[in-house]
Amino acid sequence: MNITILTFGTRGDVEPPLALAHGLTLAGHRVRLVAPVAYHEWVASYGVEPARLRFDMGEMLRRSERERGGRARRLGDIRAMRAEVMAGSAESLEDYRAASNDADFVVQWGAAQGGVEIADQRDIAMACAYPYPYAPTKAFPSYFVPWRGSLGGNYNWWTQQLALAVSWRTYGRPLNQWRSEQFHLPPWTSYARVMESGRRRGPALYAYSPSVLPKPSDWSDDDHVTGYWFLPPQANWTPPPELARFLEDGPPPVFVGFGSMPSAHAEEMTATVLLGLEKAGCRGVLLAAGGGALARRASSRDVLFVDVVPYRWLFPRMAAVVHHGGAGTTAAVLNAGVPGIVMPLELDQFAWARRVEELGVSVRGAHLRKLSADNLAAAIRKAVAPQIAERARRMGETIRAETGVANAVALIERAAGRFDRKAEPGADEGTRTPTPFGTGT
Predict the structure, then answer these.
(1) What is the pLDDT of residues 65-99, one digit of tens each?
(2) What is the pTM of this model?
(3) Is 15 in contact with 328 (CB distance < 8 Å)?
(4) CATH architecture assigned to 2-228+402-431
(5) Going by C-beta distance under 8 Å and a sequence separation of 6 or more, which residues neighbour residue 116?
(6) Which residues pair with 6 in a beta bridge?
(7) In DSSP terms, which residues pair with 205 in a beta bridge?
(8) Which CATH number is 241-400's, of 3.40.50.2000, 1.10.10.10, 3.90.180.10, 3.30.200.20?
């Protein structure tokens, strides 16, 4: 098949679909992955065809942080960012359509939109895929509410509906405008209806481990928790000599990195991290690339600053990993079988921090904006304790035995084989009454 995968976001939003694209390529399919130009060389290195996505979420976040000069976000800042994301989403819809002009199957990943319309227009099967739970359930609160805990099934369901409504306020308007102008279709009334229409053309794939978060009993048979989608290290990749020497010259260090999370206080945060490592009595490997949350300094006997290093190679060599709780980084830490210290900042990071703490394999640290040398040192000392380290090791064995990419490839191939062309004409999708979520039917 010719398969197009639609992405929207930062590097962490590109890596899991790239892993899927690589798996589909190995299975004999031709795969095109729509992503910002900054990632095209990386995408192509895995035998996957990159396609242009003009909007770069990571660059937008970094620019916004620079413009604020380190002050806390105000309501006006949030509104401006939301408006820019809406404009970027609208612009991306045409990029997605251009990349899908010969597609036999479309995968819509995460916050990307437009896959349903493209699949309807081309009369092909599709899959909606997510790195987090998204279909409503009574089993747990939405992964997009920052507060802790559950007040029961009805409350959990309400938070799920709230998350869908908030998402719709950002993405619904540009999607409906594009839907009307380009396809002359009636508007969607909610994101739940978009998801339900996509479900009639193929499965919903959840790219995380059922050992970490089992499938809720009130999800349908079309919802599949596949296991994580891990990207293998690039062929012939070898570590930089200074990194290899550093790892050989002492006990396993602690990794500290916050992915694409930008910070105008990078120098101050770096100084805090260095002091925290000193207080904990640990060596450190600090990520000085990505969003710029940490600033590069001269490396020393006990601290090494690195740029991009494959997490699957690096993390198993660490004593612990300090990170922000993004779904992809959390998965990499679990796969490595080492303890994590999660310092969340926004969105689903708080929920992943709670979940891995509940599993006993990580420590939930302070909010990233409240990072201090003392709370970092205390979290590291707690995380490397034998009980947590052993539970993390066992969880790593479980995760590594799973076959998330292979499971997803099989589900995509099965959906394409079963799809009945012309069974669902696109012209009236927006007027159908969807089947309610969570009925198991």
Answers:
(1) 666 555 555 656 667 777 777 777 888 899 999 99
(2) 0.87
(3) yes
(4) 3-Layer(aba) Sandwich (3.40)
(5) 108, 126, 194, 197, 198, 201, 429
(6) 34, 108
(7) 129, 224
(8) 3.40.50.2000
